User: What shape does this take?
Amino acid sequence: MAVNKEAYIQIKKELEAKNVTLVAVSKTKPASDILELYELGQRDFGENYVQELMEKAEQLPNDIRWHFIGHLQSNKVKYIAPFVHLIHGVDSEKLLKEINKQAAKLNQTIDVLLQIHIAKEETKFGLDEEELNILINTNGSGLHELKNVKICGLMGMASFSEDLDLVRREFEFLKNLFDKYANLQISNLKFQILSMGMSSDYQIAIEEGSTMVRIGSLLFGARNYVK
Ligand SMILES: *Cc1c(COP(=O)(O)O)cnc(C)c1O
Assistant: This one.
């Protein structure tokens, strides 16, 4: 299935008017598809799998900003640390510490988002409100020590549901959490990015305050397989 350039141009325009960043989610799609959008000016791309991301990053232009949006295992951080732009799915202190460690080795800082579990489904990863509170407050002093990560905001995935009111309430919940910490400024924590919304629900997400959407199938067509 071909890249839908018309959809890209239209969505891009819509998002620019609202000051929302578009991450084009290219998982399972070939590098040639990514290049097609690159040539139209797209620079932010999202991938879910470490191996796949490494292969694509090697083949594609250096000024692409790679977003890691999948579930990241601690032992794989080292592979993407040298070039990743933003890691969206940080859902444990252990992972946060490992990212900090790898970034320190490289003498750099890595930007991350904390993933919050907002959906009904059990299968979606993420921290709940209490875990977020603990991570930020109880370990707040500990966060200071993680000098090589910058916590830039929150990420969440709504329920995969036809019930759009439910989806909206889940985004609204995430936005409220985001606002709760928006004024908090620890040296390495400053909330500026709220990553929520995908092909099926990005308009609702924007209405509820998203600043960054992750859109795959509307741009690249349906994925043939689930990896
Ligand atoms: C695959 C994926 C997307 C994009 O999904 P579409 O429905 O194809 O837009 C967005 N976010 C995450 C975390 C994903 O895994």
